Fold this sequence. Notes:
331 residues, alpha/beta, 11 helices, iron-sulfur, 4Fe4S_Fe_S_CS, metal ion binding, 4Fe4S_Fe-S-bd, Sulfite reductase subunit A
Amino acid sequence: MAYKIIRERFDQYLQQLKKDYRLFAPVVLNGKGTFTDTDSIRYQEINSIGEICFDKKSNFSAKEVLLPITQTLFYFTEDNWSEPKVDDKKLLLFVRSCDIHAIRRLDDIYLRNGFKDPYYKVLREKVRFCLMECEQGFENCFCVSMKTNTVEEYDMLARPQGKFVYVTVKNSELDFFDGKAIEIEPKFPQKNMTEVKLPRRLNQDIAGSPMWQEYSARCIGCGRCNFVCPTCSCFSMQDIFYKDNANAGERRRVWASCMVDGFTDMAGGHQFRKSQGDRMRFRVMHKVYDYKKRFGYHMCVGCGRCDDACPEYISFSNCLDKLGKAEEADQ
């Protein structure tokens, strides 16, 4: 069902939803950007549609709602342990098409990869999606090339337009509206400013190409590309011991980055990938080769956030283009 309603009525609807749902959407955080007097767009709980940033790309994806940067897995004492309580409310996420596809990738890793992660699963089962349209796409986006520009797996759509909000509700549990239904078709980008020609195959020569050594000279190993990526899923473990009782504390999992020194450290001091070029090769090959061999589609969804975040202006999409050209030259 689809409806055209005034903004005030939609905000009332959101307040009604908040009885059973926590609502998360991209919000502009004034002055919280990387540099002085710059803003950051992050996922936060919202109360009204006016708080949602529809016209800009969020710096981080909705991943940080489902997979928190720091997540307590359990508390422990000398004698026992206990898991933290989980909020009974469901989650309604305002997300774009590429980010819905990205969560599908996280589902593959955490639920369909030989083991179901119970901490991820309990949150994922509560999630519902409200689609945010991005008709033209944004800078550095290449979702059309990655075929993540359109999506059907969403529960509702919200399109603010002047004093009104156009709403499509596909999930009956979210349908609290009354009035005459109308027809609404979701708007998806059909072309991006950035286009990527993906290699159809990657042979050993391309994988061992000297092109990767360029990144040893440029990449500083900050890991920002991994942290803003909606499909990166690696984490490390931390045990926190309380000051008032050294035998009590909590175990946390914290986001980790394959681009940061120490990620592949093993006992005895061995490292699998010592140079930034080797780490870049691993990251790229995992996103567009290894993952596809296992699940049938690319891990990268073309959101372009890694390009946006890199302080050295390293472009993931440019790297993919280089692979495509290397393949052509090899033929």
